[in-house]
Structures are given as structure tokens and as C-alpha cells.
Design brief:
By secondary structure, the protein is mainly alpha-helical. The protein folds into two domains: 1-113, no CATH class; 134-237, Leucine-rich Repeat Variant, CATH 1.25.10.90. It is built from 14 helices and no strands.
Length: 237
Amino acid sequence: MNKINLSQVIIAALNEQACAEKAQHHLRFFKTAPGEYGEGDKFIGVNVPDQRKIAKKYFREINLNELEVLLTNEIHECRSTALFMLCYKFDKAGEAERTLMADLYLNNLSFVNNWDLVDASAANILGCYLMDKKRDLLYDFVQSNDLWKQRIAIIATFYFIRCGEFVDTFKISEMLLHHPHDLIHKAVGWMLREVGNRDKEAEINFLLKHYRQMPRTMLRYAIEKFDEGLRRQFLKG
């Protein structure tokens, strides 16, 4: 397979699974109309399970140059399949290879440009890579005016959460408390809920300091797993 252009093979495999009706649904679901957050994105209508099946078939063979071809493709499913493969490769790679993969990811963040692409990759690639490194980059992302970099920053902390570290999640959540976009509200609330799944007291202590300032969506996401009585207490303020 080394002499075969794998990026083209994968594109062909995706096209075989394409569905025009699903593509139209995805255009609406991922907000691609003028002025919406996914403006101009293009879909061919391939379900995520089919993308993952293709990614698992080819991730061991594809090299980073061809993976980058897919990651920079205008078709959304090509980019998401590329990110699935990058995650699979990253998980099995050594430190030197992981550095190359993290660089590839960071150099192409302009193509990680919708919430599903962020959520599929930020923790498993960037969060994992930064686990034993300085995390200043995440704070730079928060302070940028880029919605997707800001979402990457908070979702990347999911890896830290899974390792029992919550400090960066709380710091970044504080920085994003007054963000205007609901995609950030949902992401922050989700990460706080994940903290609570592992340490409910830590989440509650954070919420007690900040819940009155939180956008309603952020708070609702954060307290989703609480019992009814405790949820009502937070919602009533």
C-alpha cells in the first residue's frame, strides 16, 4: 500500500458512503448558512461510525503528509476522518512521533473549525501532548478571538480531568464565564460536569463561587447529573 495514494483511497471510500439527504441535514445541523458559525462548510453526508470504520482501516498505513492532505480538505468528513486517524496514530506513537503529530495538528487548526472536529481531537491530541508540559498555549487560545481555539482550550482539559487534574479546567472556565457564545457555554458546562463525575465536591465548590455569573446553558450542562433537589437550588440561585 505504500505506493498507493492513500488520501485518495480514503476520499473514495468516504464518497462510497455519501448520502445527499444526510449532507443536507448536516448543512443545517452544523450551521453552515451565511453568518452562522460553520459558514461555508461542505458535507457529503457520511455518518461518524462509517468515518471511524474507514479511519481504523487506514490509520496505521497513512503517513502524516497524506493525512495533512485530508485534514486540509474542504469536505468536512475528510477533515473529521483525518482527525480520527490522527488520534488513533497518536495513541500508539512514541514521544518523538507525538511531537510531529501535535505540530501537524497545531499548524492546521484553521481546519479544525467546528465543534465536532474540536471535540474529536482536542483532548486526545493536544491535551495528551501537554499533560507533562507547560500549558501556556491553552491560555493563549482562551485570550484569542477565535471561537474554535477557545473551545479547543477548554476541551483539551478533558484529558487532564481523566487523569485527575482539575486546576486548568477551573482556571479556563473562569476565563470563559462571560463568553457570549453558547458553544463555549456548553463546552465549559460539559467539562465541569466531567470534573463532577470524578470529584463532585470539587465541582460544587467551583459552582458555589461562580454559578450566579454563569450563563444559564453553562450552568444547566454543569449540573445535569445532580439530583433534582440540588439542581433546583442552583437554578433558583
